[in-house]
Design brief:
four-stranded mixed β-sheet; alpha+beta; 39% helix; 9 helices
């Protein structure tokens, strides 16, 4: 017996495929909009956020766009080992821009939470689900001095090539040199963030990165600082910084010649692990 598709059936399949492509494009666009939003200082309620590295898209977080979902059970089935997860459901936004506007107005604290590392967006018609998660730390890290040196190596590899940082183009720059005082300052701030359960360039004592470097005896004329939280590997930290225009500028700035970096952990903190990199211009 012969079988086949009618013209109407073929058209229906084509329309369905086109609709799925549009939805996938909108899901990807919303992730881009969220990461752009996180990459800039934002005012959320009564506080100002820090510039945050981008969230990484992870299909294991992709859940149905509507209906009740047991987050922990669903992510366990998908093989995602998480410490914390937050799901935002939206009903009504017609496109990614409208969904982003709703997120900014009603869910800025969730979107700007530095502990979240991964993201997935699902959409069906005007129903959306945004899932943000912090993974369980899996890597067994070496002492902070060794991991700081690994950061230096990977950053110097990045500086070895022309790079686009947002709208700015940077030529290849000379490699940075390890600087012990800057490394100690970085370790002190990472430890303060981990034990104090906060994520900011300004410490709880009100001191800025420049203040901390000066008090530690660093004699350079200018310093810069990158921070990160939640990532359990040097490669993830560097990738996040390179994808964030503000952080990328520090990495590629030819004025900087010296560098120190460190991490610190505290299982009682929200993010679990905190990284600080200090850049210096002698």
């Amino acid at each position: 017996m012969a079988t086949g598709f009618s013209i109407r059936g073929i058209l229906a399949l084509a329309v369905a495929a086109a609709s799925l492509q549009v939805q996938a494009a909108d899901e990807a666009q919303l992730i881009e909009l969220i990461n752009d939003y996180r990459s800039q200082v934002q005012r959320c309620e009564t506080q100002a956020s820090e510039e945050l590295p981008p969230l990484a898209a992870d299909n294991r977080l992709s859940l149905p766009a509507s209906g009740q979902v047991d987050l922990q059970s669903a992510l366990a089935r998908n093989g995602y080992p998480m410490v914390n997860v937050q799901a935002i459901t939206l009903s009504g936004p017609r496109d990614a821009s409208s969904a982003m506007q709703t997120l900014q107005e009603s869910f800025c604290k969730v979107v700007l939470n530095p502990q979240f590392v991964d993201i997935a967006v699902s959409r069906v018609d005007r129903d959306w689900r945004v899932v943000l998660a912090q993974p369980l730390l899996k890597s067994k890290l070496a002492p902070w001095q060794e991991e700081g040196q690994k950061l230096l190596e990977q950053i110097n590899q990045a500086r070895n090539s022309t790079r686009q940082c947002g709208e700015l183009t940077y030529a290849a720059a000379a490699p940075l040199q390890w600087q012990t005082v800057l490394a100690d300052v970085a370790q002190e701030h990472s430890r303060a963030m981990a034990n104090g359960n906060f994520f900011a360039h300004r410490g709880t004592d009100g001191r800025t990165p420049g203040d901390r470097a000066e008090l530690a005896g660093y004699s350079g004329q200018h310093v810069g600082e990158n921070i990160a939280a939640g990532q359990d590997a040097v490669s993830k930290v560097v990738q996040g910084w390179l994808a964030s225009p503000g952080h990328c500028v520090n990495l590629m700035n030819p004025q900087y010649k010296e560098f120190g970096a460190a991490y610190a952990t505290d299982p009682k903190s929200d993010a679990g692990i905190y990284w600080t990199a200090m850049f210096g211009a002698p």
